[in-house]
Specification:
Blueprint: H1 19-45, E1 49-50, E2 55-58, E3 75-79, E4 82-83, H2 87-94, E5 100-107, E6 110-118, E7 134-136, E8 139-140, H3 143-170, H4 181-193, H5 198-219, H6 228-237
Antiparallel strand pairs: 1-8, 2-7, 3-4, 3-5, 5-6
Amino acid sequence: MEGEDEETDDPRAFSRQAAWKRFVVLVAGSAMNFIFGFLVILLIFAGGTFTPPTVTGFMDGCPYEGETALMAGDTFYEIDGYRIYFSSNITQFLERGDGTYDITVIRNGEKVAFDDFYLVPRDYEGQTSPMYGFYFGTSESGVGATLKYSWYNAVDFVRNVWLALSDLVAGAIGVNQLSGPVGIVGMMNTVGQSSRTIGMAIENIAYFGAFIAINLAVMNLLPLPALDGGRIFFLFVNR
């Protein structure tokens, strides 16, 4: 746009606008990507079921069940400070730890904290691989639940991008594990081919597309010179 990268006398040029107007313009692209991703998730989730992080039962012999431990009806709220939105988050953040965690659950409407709670996968009869020993049910969706879990999913996508970036900086993952445009197309092709039906393929590809849109929204706000985040950074520095 005129005045974004060069000097101009046009009073309507980008560089001659108030700082707050330039900020709104620079944020708009990422905001639209996030909104698009959220709306796609909302459409996918409409009329579906969800798996909230609420324990519905335990396997026989599970040592983590009891009044001073986990109980049926407990809803996982946090693990080591990470907010839990879905049951899948539980395994995700347990795998990032060393077997001892600070866990907060919601029990009878109140938060119950377990500090240094030892929790590792174990072998259970009839299971082919080690498991934690508790399981979760599904809940039917209504308008409120669909909106809530769609929002949770979008926020979870944002968090996963930041976690990937922090792991990259910490050396937990390598640059070779990141994907460019060709890799993304390849992943979308894999997602489509692994789906059992055409309908599921369309849904899974759309869901992956929502993740990419939200990923781009976050990445574009990084404070790097070539990105809108870099322009926002210098906008504040030069005020």
